[in-house]
């Protein structure tokens, strides 16, 4: 009887276990399936991360950024005892442009595409409801974005730590010449008044009364003399000429990307891609839009200062210098002649000058043929600087040259030997 009873108990237990197992089967199948899916997803994520890593390793633009950062860190450690920035902390803060929503910090440096990038930050802030920064005029690019100017340092530190940071640099001798062309040679009455008159008074023997009153005819050697003096004395310095390292403190702030004007388009597209901004910022034809932007910008600026210009020279002479600036930049061919007389005033409207510039641009040939202008203009300008002054200039620009991987003095300038190139009789700089 006991045996029969035990058998019945075992049968009931087995039946109960069987029911439990059958009930659990669907759950086990679902669970194992989910494990397989999750495992597949994880493997997919790993493959995705690996693919991105492999892409970055094979990406020549990213490699270039990595090499620049590596070089910078080495030079920062090497120049530790020589690295002295005269710019105030407030000036540095003012150059840090912020977009908190996208966690981006950009250090803006004058004469290195900062007007372009400020327009991008206008779009990111919602100030402009457009996607193409070239649809915003350059003359309007001075508001509508945030800077670190009024932020305490603890807040700035947090922003820098959490954000992607980038800056752009440029060959120092070219940047200095660009500053001269844009602010001193080409009509800019604000700079004539603040810097030009100071240079004439301080660095010219026997200046005329007109030159002292206007500051409109500063030569490039006089400008270089001023720059070297201002760097050594910390007097009358201006952001458009001050070395790049002072604006951005790259040995103190760890920038993720250091772009260069020499590779501006490639570097810009790469940074926009890394910041995931390709849908927000779009271009039609970057090169053509850049040149069109420069033409329109030239008209806007020169006519905005017309009243002040005519106090110092015929307005057509001011237009002539603006025309020359575009030839120096390689936007207009040097073979397209200026269409107005320069010794007297004629009535020229903004629309007429704009039409003349666009017609000249259409006749100027391809970009490669115009690129020679930039080098010719640079050689012409620096050929007028004495060897002794060139050595002093080299020392004033040495930290920028070292930190960002440029020659202490460009080889092509060393070969000048104080001799003005012929350029077929063409002269880029005429201050008469």
From TrEMBL:
InterPro entries: Carb_sulfotrans_8-10, Sulfotransferase
Lineage: Eukaryota, Metazoa, Spiralia, Lophotrochozoa, Mollusca
Subcellular locations according to the entry: Golgi apparatus membrane
Enzyme class, first EC level, given as a word: transferase
Family: Belongs to the sulfotransferase 2 family.
Protein name in the entry: Carbohydrate sulfotransferase
GO molecular function, one term: sulfotransferase activity
Record keyword Signal present: no
Organism listed in the record: Magallana gigas
Gene Ontology cellular-component terms listed: Golgi membrane
Lineage top rank: taxon: Eukaryota
